[in-house]
Amino acid sequence: MNQKKERLRKLWVSLLGVCVLGLAVYAADSLGWIDNYIRGIFIQCCFAIIMVTSLNLVMGYLGQIALGHAGFMAVGAYTSALVTKAIGLGIKAGAILPMSNVMQFFIGLLCGAVAAALFGLVVGIPALRLRGDYLAIITLGFGEIIRVIIQNLAFAGGKGLANGQAGQALVGILKMNDIYVIFGVTAVCVAIMLAFVRSKFGRAIIAIREDDIASSSAGLNITFYKVLTFTVSAFFAGIAGAIYAHRGLGTLQHSDFTFLKSTEYVIMVVLGGMGSMTGSVVAAIILSVIPEALRAFSQYRMLIYSVILVLMMIFRPIGLFGNYEFSLYELLRGKLTGKPPRSGRSAAKGGA
Amino acid sequence: MPETILRASHLGITFGGLKAVHNFEIDIKEGELVGLIGPNGAGKTTVFNLFTGVYKPTEGTFYLGKQLMNGKKTHEIVAAGIARTFQNIRLFKKMTVMENVLIAFTKDIRYGLPGSILRTAAFWKEEADIRDKAMDLLSVFNLQDKADWNAGNLPYGQQRKLEIARALATNAKMLLLDEPAAGMNPTETAELLACINTIRRKFNISILLIEHDMSLVMNICERIVVIDYGEIIAQGLPEEISHDPKVIAAYLGE
Amino acid sequence: MDGLTLFIQQIINGLRVGSVYALIALGYTMVYGIIRLINFAHGDFIMVGAYALFFTVPLMIAAGMPAWMAVFVAIIVCAITGVLVEKLAYRPVRAKGTNMSALITAIAMSLFLENLAQTLFGASPKQVKTIFDLPMIFGFSGNTFLTIAIGVVVMVGHSLFVKYTKAGQAMRAVSEDKSASKLMGINVNGIIALTFAIGSGLAAIASLMYVAQYNQVTNMMGSMLGLKAFVAAVLGGIGIIPGAMLGGLVIGIVESLSKAYIAPLTGGLITSAFSDAIVFSILIVVLLVKPAGIMGKNIGEKV
Questions:
Q1: By the number of CB atoms within 10 A of the CB, which of A22, B17, C264, C301 ranks highest?
Q2: Domain range annotation of chain B
Q3: What pTM, to 2 d.p., does this model score?
Q4: B4-252 belongs to which homologous superfamily?
Q5: Set of chain A residues whose Cβ sits within 8 Å of the Cβ of C98
Q6: pLDDT tens readout for residues A234-259
């Protein structure tokens, strides 16, 4: 079974790649390069990566613009923050056995992700009956509604839960800024999304994007696949939200999740390339780091983004990476054996 | 006596007061090849859209075997066994030829989200199996060497064939072909004819065919139904139809 | 104040806000009707108009002219902005892009205008000098009636223009069928530019009405205003001109009434703090129940 061998080899190479990245982080850490500032940027990159890749599922693969992704992030952020708060109180009161911060964080993260996915489902079922402009605007509407509701919930403001106050920032959230944990979560999320698009699900979604009438005539239940994608996308936005909520500042504000926030992630997806996970990751990192590197220009940031975006739409509407996917395996294979890298899936599809 | 595969009685649809199709009756037996002809705008494609759930009939019923199909969604109808092609080819142009066929197998794939994320043995086996099946199907149409091509880059005649292959991959009992020879040159048409004969033998499938190319229709159809203004004006054997005064009148425009 | 007076006051307030929405919605609907694009930047044209007023009103007063004359400058500035946005961004994208890239361009232009204004004028609100100083009429400020009156006049004028002038007819022709219009000798790109100019001009008038009421300009003022006007356009049936006016007035009245009555009606469960959410809920309900809007027709795809 040659194929099986190759599959295993690919898996090992990918794991190796992730480990090398992890070791690089470890090396930087032990050299003392990672202070709180760098840590903050690192975490910012991580949740941006999850946000952008998950939004890419809807924009790049399903081919629909969603302008309410920050709404799902908000659901994940607030749910996870309130859950870790509740656990903390429970431990203090002796109602729950003590557990590590990481454990608390993971429980919060899962709850946040599931809550966001539920919202995704509830929003997706009606919204995905629409397409194009209308879907964009209805998701924008849902995103804003989610935000306004959170703003007006007493238990989601102030000290939260029973001591909460509507309209206030939620304070005193558990701090979880261990970069290894965050890095691990991000790597797993991206891997799962890649697996998702490289299965019958991804194939079906792309087919629906290409031609929905032909898809249903080929036996696809379009509504099912659309809503599923939207829900999966919201699930990961929830995870990103959980990371955001616990990023170490301890506070959450409803104004962190306006439609402008959603728009920023849309920009990242578009720049990276709709339909390229590689592009999403790269765009998320670059657009998270550059504003920090160019603090002096921070007031021009959005101005520059918008100009780049328009130029991109005029000269390269498919984004930096189009639908190219980076593969360490193919790269090594080329280098070690001297064979030219095989044209990957996207390369075979090129020219279209 | 072969069994009835597709049966419609009093089938019709009204769009805002206009009866696009009215009182449509048909009875297609297992393995039969029936032609559906009529002048432009007679309602032929509308009949297909009714049979595939794109439109919901406003009158009458239609059955696949013994199963009532009225009001079912397109994908449910496909799962039951009716597949179609389109007048203006609808392929997934940016997907490969192979993937176009794989899509039609999707409904039979049993692995779910966990399987695809964990990349289980079952996942790999099913993926390999449907690829083999798709390859077999492509080789029937002589497309096996182009499995990696973008569907949009295929020559026109092969795009038509790929569309038929995709429809067959749904494991249909009843195949609806909407002008399969449209835009083809005589060589391509001849090839298509041979191809249709092959798949009839190989898959034991019933076919309903809309076609403008009279020679093709007269050549391969066992029975012909003629509609005009949404209603059946004649049906019978090819030679009967070609001499029917009503049909001649409809085509010549009286 | 008794209940009836309060109610009437809310309705009149609603009509005032609604006529502002209606004028903005007209711009959305005209552009959508002609190039099938949600012009996200349209809300920001109001902001452009408002800044134009902010700078020209003092000049007008200094020159001894009535302050409202500044609106003509604002109309010109907005029309130029609109045409530039169309020529520099939308047209090149439209030439080769998809629907999606057009929509992204529109979002980008909106961000561009908002951030350009912030860079040029700062993020803090600017106070505009009083434009109209009218006496109270029946217990309502004169401004309110003037706003409604301007709204009505502009809407009627606009309808007559589209219906009876040659350019208006050409606009309708282009929105029906671009290629046929081209064959009939209509300068399609010219007509699209004209549509942008008029739509943006209407936004300038809307900004006069808005600024006369609130006296304030910020770089983000167009964002929410534009979104609500867009909801109005969808509610009435996007692409349909009378629909935009109807939608604008309905949204204005709903907003005003919900601010006043929603808390007592729902026992305090939903408060006036939800008013933006209520507007969006209306949008969602309309899109789901009748996506083509109150005055629109549903059109399916041909197979």
A1: A22
A2: 4-252
A3: 0.90
A4: P-loop containing nucleotide triphosphate hydrolases (3.40.50.300)
A5: 317
A6: 999 999 999 999 998 889 999 999 98
